[in-house]
Amino acid sequence: MDTGAHQRILVTGGAGFIGSHLILRLVQEFPQWTIHNLDALTYAADLTPLIPVSQAPNYHFHHLDITDVNALTELWSTYPFDAVIHLAAESHVDRSIQGPEVFLTTNVQGTLNLLTLAIKHWKDQPKKRFHHISTDEVYGSLGSTGYFTEQTPYAPNSPYAASKASADHWVRAYAHTFGLNAVITNCSNNYGPHQHPEKLIPLCVERMSRLEPVPLYGDGLQVRDWLHVSDHVEGIIQVFLRAEPGSQYVIGGRNEWKNKDLLEQIAAVVDRQLARPMGTSAALITPVQDRPGHDRRYAIDPQKIENELGWSAQKDMPSGLEETVAWCLKRSQSSVNTRKT
Ligand SMILES: NC(=O)c1ccc[n+]([C@@H]2O[C@H](COP(=O)([O-])OP(=O)(O)OC[C@H]3O[C@@H](n4cnc5c(N)ncnc54)[C@H](O)[C@@H]3O)[C@@H](O)[C@H]2O)c1
User: Fold this and answer.
1) d(CA 87, CA 130)
2) Which of 122, 195, 131 is nearest to 167 (CA)?
3) Which of 43, 212, 244, 303 could join 207 in a cystine, given CB atoms 3.0 to 4.6 angstroms apart?
4) If residue 168 lies in a helix (H) or strand (E), which one and from where to where?
5) For the residues 294-320, what does the mean pLDDT come to?
């Protein structure tokens, strides 16, 4: 990617959790580029984190659905994009169990719509890059040992993971068949400010702050490999700028936590930040029936991105959690105040 020249970059899903963090960095650090944020503004979107850049001359927002081929075609004709970073997706596993269809239309058909336009507009232009943002959930579940790497066979277990795995395959096939300069990144669980309150960490903080029961699926011994969103965004930028066409990278922070231990850690931080007696929040943790097909363990071996691109996770979990809990408590408090007025 030529960082010096003007580039028109399409970021899909930029009003979501990870997308908004990415857009803030791109708009501020690459003033020579124009960043086009395309988002359907579903329930998961929030444009408020983007207020600091909303008036920037190199930022444009398009309220558009990636399943709307006509609107997408018109947009691409109006703004001939030089690159795509594709994050737009339905992203919540529980919702994919309750209603999988939209995961097929958005995550698979929506990705195919973008790929189709990319190869139509970028014929014989190998520098134009399509970066697909995916998840480690495409690899299924690990036992108590081992790690996901770029060689791990796909074995998606939830409808969400199946839709992301399918999209990854379409991207790979378009790179192989049509010579599209595509790269794929598969990241572990993200956390940080601005995450939707339906996701594990913000959900726990909000419930603990309201003294409500905090559900813990099954025995709570499921393991997730947590990465601060700022580290994921740095990984995306490094891969986008420097990875070989057709390459794939897993991204993770070597930071495995059992769900039960994570909830107890969050409870301690919440109690401290709210100056409550220690143990108040932990007492709210309530085991509930496990999620159907719940994967047992995810863990990433990030050697490839570390060795080839010099990336490594920078944010340690204690300080990342401290900051995230403080942010979630503030949001929870402001939504209480809004409800009162
Ligand atoms: N959050 C994680 O832990 C994590 C980890 C690895 C990979 N990912 C991937 O990163 C991407 C972003 O995840 P996130 O956590 O920010 O998700 P999110 O749910 O917070 O945001 C998704 C965004 O996509 C938009 N969107 C949904 N359907 C759309 C459509 N049809 N057309 C246009 N926009 C649409 C939503 O409005 C929202 O702004 C997803 O592709 C996800 O699979 C997420």
Assistant:
1) 11
2) 131
3) 212
4) helix 159-178
5) 97
Over the stretch 250-299, which tens digit does the pLDDT of each residue have?
Answer: 999 999 999 999 999 999 999 999 999 999 999 999 999 988 888 899 99
Calculate how far, in angstroms, residue 68's C-alpha sits from the geometric centre of ligand 1: 17
Q: Residues with Cβ within 6 A of ligand 1?
A: 12-13, 15-19, 39-42, 44-45, 65-67, 87-91, 106, 110, 133, 135, 164, 187, 189-190, 196
For the whole prediction, is pTM greater than 0.85? yes
Q: At residue 4, does pLDDT exceed 90?
A: no
Beta-bridge partner residues of 92? none
Block residue for tokens 């699926």: 217
Tell me which of 87, 107, 163, 170 to substitute to probe ligand 1's pocket, judged by most ligand atoms within 8 Å of the beta carbon: 87
Q: Assess whether 306 carries a catalytic annotation.
A: no
CATH superfamily of 8-194+226-255+299-314: NAD(P)-binding Rossmann-like Domain (3.40.50.720)
E-strand ranges in 138-213 read 181-187, 190-191
Let me know if 234 is a catalytic residue: no
Query: Which protein residue has the closest C-alpha to ligand 1 atom 44?
Result: 135
| Residue 338: band (very low, low, confident or very high) from pLDDT cuts 50, 70, 90 | low
